[in-house]
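Hey, can you fold this one?
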Amino acid sequence: STSSKGGTTANLDSIEEAWSVGMNRAVELIAAKVASRGNRGWNAPVLNDLGEHPERGGSVTVLDGKYGPYVKWNKVNATVPKDTDPASIDMAAATRLIEEREAKGGKKRRRRKRS
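Sure. Predicted structure:
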């Protein structure tokens, strides 16, 4: 993980290893930690670029995300139904999915209570 000082930290296998860990082992552990950071900051691969939205402008793309394929237009992400092949989505289907998603609305964020 990244520390508050900006560096990267890694866990040792046991507490006893803290007294015997060498520079090579420490560098190896940190390199493994950095390599295994998962998909944070990961860009979803583009399956299909459909071009500009016909009425409102802005690029419409079909992407393959962590939870399955979705259509992206500006800040609107519309899930592609499981029974639909993402490669077969055209602009008409994409705009319909986007309109349905906009009508549904986003999640409301709750304010944190101050203690």
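The chain has two domains: 1-37, 46-104. Let me know if you want another pass with a different chain boundary.
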